[in-house]
Design a protein that fits this description.
The complex is a heterodimer of chains A (748) and B (122). With 748 residues, chain A is α/β, with parallel strands linked by helices. In chain A, the strands form 5 sheets. In chain A, strands 14-20-16-15-17-18-19 form a 7-stranded mixed beta sheet, sandwiched between helices. Chain B is mainly α. Chain B folds into 2 domains: 1-65, no CATH class; 67-122, Hypothetical Protein Yqey, Chain: A, domain1, CATH 1.10.1510.20. Helix content of chain B is 59%, strand content 0%. Chain B has 6 helices and no strands. The chains are: A alpha/beta (748), B mainly alpha (122). The interface between A and B is large, with 68 and 61 residues.
Chain lengths: 748, 122
Amino acid sequence: MTTPIGRFRFMDAQLVNLDGFAVEDPSLGLIAFDAPEDPKPSLVLDRDNRVIEMDSRRSEDFDVLDEFIARHGLDLDVATEAMELDDVAFARMAVDPAVPRAEIVRLGAGMTPAKLARCLSLLRPVELGLAMTKMRARRTPSNQAHVTNRSDDPLLLAADAATAAAFGFREVETTVPVLGDAPSNAVAVSIGAAVGSPGVLVQCSVEEAIELEMGMRGLVSYAETVSIYGTEQVFIDGDDTPWSKAFLTSAYASRGVKMRVTSGGGSEALMGAAERRSMFYLEARCVALARALGSQGVQNGGIDSAAVAGSVPGGVRSLMAENVMVMVRNLEACTGNDALMSESHVRRTSRTLPILLAGSDYVCSGFGSIQRYDNMFGPSQWNSEDVDDFLVMQRDWGVDGGLRTAAEPRVAELRTRAVDAVRAVYRHLGLGDFTDTWAAQAVDAAGSKDVPAADLMTPLVASRIIRETAVTMLDVVAALYETGFEDEAGRILAMLKARVAGDYLQTAAIFDEDMRILSLVTDPNDYAGPGTGYVPTSARQSEIDTIRQQRSLEDLRAEQAGYRSDDLTVEDVSGTQAAGNDPRDVVIGVSPAVGREIWRTLSGLSVVDALRELLAGLEEEGCVGRVIRVNDTIDLGMIGLTAARLAGSGIGIGLQGKGTALIHRRDLPPLANLELYSVAPSVDARAYRQLGINAGRHAKGATPEPARNAYSDEAIEARYHTKVVALVGIERACSEPGALPQQLAVQR
Amino acid sequence: MSPSTLGASGRDPAEITVEAVRDGTVDIADLRIHPDQLVHQAEVAEAHENPQLGANFRRAAELASLPDEQVLALYDALRPYRSTADELRAHADSLSETGAVLNAALFREAAEVYARRGLLRR
């Protein structure tokens, strides 16, 4: 083995090379689209309008998926028309804004899995985006969060659920590392979510029957982890059949509980039973089945197997195409971006961005709103460390990804209230007691590692009592009310009452903060090209635009004023200075705002200290420095040249308030200079001292070694350019054409 | 959509206040959806180009009045290798008797397909 050359050692060490990449291999199902053995689309009906062949398979050979789809999933009245339609023609219709969504939905209903897979595999990435914008069910995009932790700590769950609601998530999904903790988790997250906002849907992902039971007792308000798979083998291994899933789907609806199914390309390959089919074809079977079952929606886009899809060519495109397929089948799309599919920040952004831009019913089917280590589903594509990134991406593109900025004092207040509410309810219902230390740690915690006081037995005991004494959500409502949490009691009761009307069972339903339902029925997507479709309200646009990190000119002015100093004053108010005669005389020219509105350079050094260093450097070389403020220009070259022309030595230093500095000589053109310190944020006290020394040496006719500009690989412009714009604006306002220079005194 | 909707117990949700809950006069059954409301939701789904969602709500309407334990038991009976064909047909018959004809059809269909695909209890 020879060691690779340095360039490749360096490349090998990059994060993306921690990811696994597979050679395409249809025999293992490791192929995104169009496996050689994907069936040719077909649909043959007998005289009684019964399906006798679908996708090249005769009905006597149908597996359970074929059978259920053929019996329940297809609109046979439109099937002939839809199956005869040219693949490209349908693909074009799907992206053409002039063809209404309803027409695509009508035709899609008559297409077999193989047919729809072929049509949608033709869409290029940008076309998928267009199709998503047009085809998603709900007009208003939204997002879903995971809220879990390693210790099933009810206080932390509640605080984190309230936080997720504050950041705008309209669905919160929890799960358990310890199955027995499920009821406690469901209660704690529901309380926390209710503290954060009215109308947040809550689910607790566990085994199908247990999850249904919790739904029946009102402990959760939706269900999602109803898994389906694209081959019979894997489906049955999942301990269900399409008939049991159809029944389960109806069971949820019978209790007024919203549900969606979960699938995702790559899951069959992961379980070694992909039957040599492509991921996209198998997912097409899942999506057709989801529609046949009567599920209102699908969570897909790889989910737990996203990294499998991501390992093959075109795999990331297939994940998005899966989501679009759900939309074409007229179902709610919860569009993956869930399990982390890459170690690389570049790659995970690349995977999510097209969906964020296009807009989806839920951009993420599980944004890890908590720490990666606390995510009991495994780390998400997006985690708590990424919340600000996500908010900034929304703002960059002006799109609605469902999140909003939350102010720190507000979140602190909500977390405290969530913790207090859970403590009160658990005490009131006899479920458990929590110490003050535990509560304080949970409020402050960034994750469960910050809550060493948490007791692991508490959620287990609470869950046992909830089960044994048949505690329902009504008991929780009563306890909240009794203990002074009337708003939260009302909010949870409102979620229970929503079951009676059942309007949130309809496709893609969420509640807004006023408990209005937004769904395919009440908020249908009406995109028909530019100028149509979803536009954020001005209030919502303002939430998207107004991130907490943004600063205005006034903020900057106030910040600068905070550094005002009496050590820099105007000495000569006459404004008339004659050029010096002393050959040791070096003049330092400062920009118009220095000593008025600008007091601190971008490196964090005060302007006065920068001047002290320059003067000391000159002194070291036996020169005498004078400081003047140049009032008629903000151009650093002109400031330096003006200073040089006033100096007995003919050498001047120019210093802008933001910290940029240069050495000038009176016979040079304005834009020339002897030395330039251009990267203001990295010019520190030592550098100003050196600049003073070098200016002194120039004054004495020597040729000093120029200082090397400090090097940085930071995004220096990203960090400082907004400040530079503001500082330059302030300088410009202080500058007046024709104004004469003034001499300044620096208190040493 | 339908402003005055009564729960399965016949109680008006407007009466269900936090005070009533505190006083213990509200049962979780008062917050169950009424079968008629599920039929209404089926009609809405059908009007929005999703007859399968409509069919689901119609099956749900039949299940709405069954006790939780029975629903859970029926779900389990449909899972792979849990039931013989006769057991599935027996469930179908008893469902039919209570008027749950759509669910009965689902069970009969399962009995037929499970036999062909080897998913019955052995």
